Amino acid sequence: MVKIVFESHDGSERTELELSPGGSVMEAAAANNIDGILADCGGSMVCGTCHAFVSPEWFEKLPEQSEMESALLEYVPDPQPNARLCCQLEVSDAIDGITFTLPESQR
Amino acid sequence: MNSTVNDHIPDHVPADLVVSYDYHGDPRLTNEVHASLQVLHDEAPPVFYTPRNGGHWVVTRFDEIKKVVEDYEVFSAKEMQIPRIENPPYFIPLNVDPPNNIPYRQALMPAFSPKAIKALEAKIRQWAGEIIDNALAKGDGFDFIQEVASVYPVSIFMELMGMPMDRLWEFRNLSDEFFSTNDQQKIHQLSGQIIMAMTEILEQKKAAPADDLMSHILNIKVKGEPISLEEMQNMCFLLFLGGMDTVANVTGYSFRQLANMPELQQRLHDNPADIAKFTDEAIRMFGVISNPRIVAKDAEVFGVKFKKDDMVLCLLPISGRDDRKNGNPHVFDIDRSKEDGHTLTFSSGPHMCLGSFLARSEIRILVEEWFKRVARYEIVPGTELGYRTGFSLALTELPLNTVKS
Fold first, then answer.
1. Å between B175 CA and nearest CA of chain A
2. The predicted structure's pLDDT at residue B181
3. Where exactly are the structural domains of chain B?
4. DSSP reduced 3-state for B379
5. Residue B2 confidence (pLDDT) above 50
6. Which of B105, B115, B339 is the closest to A79 by Cβ?
7. Which class is B15-404 in CATH?
8. What interface predicted TM-score (ipTM) does this complex get?
9. B155, B165 Cβ separation under 8 angstroms
10. What are the structural domains, with CATH classification, of chain A?
11. Which of A47, A68, A72, A80 is the mutation pick for testing B, counting most B CBs within 10 A?
12. Among the listed residues B302, B311, B307, the one whose alpha carbon sits nearest the alpha carbon of residue B67
């Protein structure tokens, strides 16, 4: 099982998910009704509404961003260097224990 | 208007999937367009075939619509007229399937992104305030559609594009006519007119560039190369139709709904922070655009056999009213949970509405400015409201009486 934590922007709410590997982090968030992940475009990488922040340590470990992902992340309401699109990350043992901090707003 | 198009049912469509539905004026429809349309959820299978308008598939429920609009390999966006016509209008990037749509979309994203729209908020608010003030100055019985819903998003859009404001009604009428017809000759004539107007403005921007979207479009590069005039025209054509008609129509339906909910009016008036929730709920209940697709290759999806070149119409406006997806879907409830608030009003997938962030902000800000000025309002009693159907649903009048705050 892969453990993933979603934390609200102000840190007041934490949701811990235990997931089987496979599928994207966005799909797991949507299936578990994580409030701050909207995923308007369903994973087609045209909206940016599934972005979240990770620690610098985790950011280093994650697979590199595509040009398109980094372009989209420039246009979210509050761009940050350690943001990722959850639709581009696979639920796998490689991210076991990661925490995603949700943005104040997705749009 | 489409009496010349014959009914048609191809051989591969089984009889139990045939239900008559005329998207250009179905007998089921009333001016409560969405409520009358949602009966299709019960009366017909989630994916059915209508013989009307030359024959096409209709998809009515959330999960099925989502699958169709996201699966571009089977359901291509390259052609969108139902019935099919010779040389159909070509919109960029809407009619371009991935991956070729991406560079165009990326070129437009800076203007329509959440970040850009946040920066535009003060300007949007100014338009909202001015337009509401002008409308209220006309006194009781003013037509909200004519004076506010038609003018407000279109003014913002035209300013964003850099279009001359004195052509507002000319452009608004062109888009209204475009969405009112499925006649081949008429579509070509109107497309020509719209493209000519856009070209004229593009040429003016070329001579005198400004800080606006049409000047930006002149400088777009795709894979390092400038785009052709035809590509620019087809982008402007799409933006024109998207900007002229959609928010105007969602706003009209939303204000009609709210007119009949005095307690909610009071709540929004007293608690402006709740207006964002109102906006989300209005968008769930009152989508206006339906998405056509063309089947790109023979395929079996949802246990249904689709044949290459079949046309498919996804009824996005009732996607949020699907009782298999949302609890109590027919109730307007701004406090509903995320779990019961699903909608595809802006579609999904690679062609999801580029203007969705702008649209959401426009509606929220309009309602905020409205309740700064209006304590409560009602539809002029005894009015029979007109409406328009087709790919884009519209309410054509909404006369209001208001009590100032």
1. 26
2. 87
3. 15-404
4. strand
5. no
6. B115
7. mainly alpha
8. 0.91
9. yes
10. 2-101 (3.10.20.30)
11. A47
12. B302
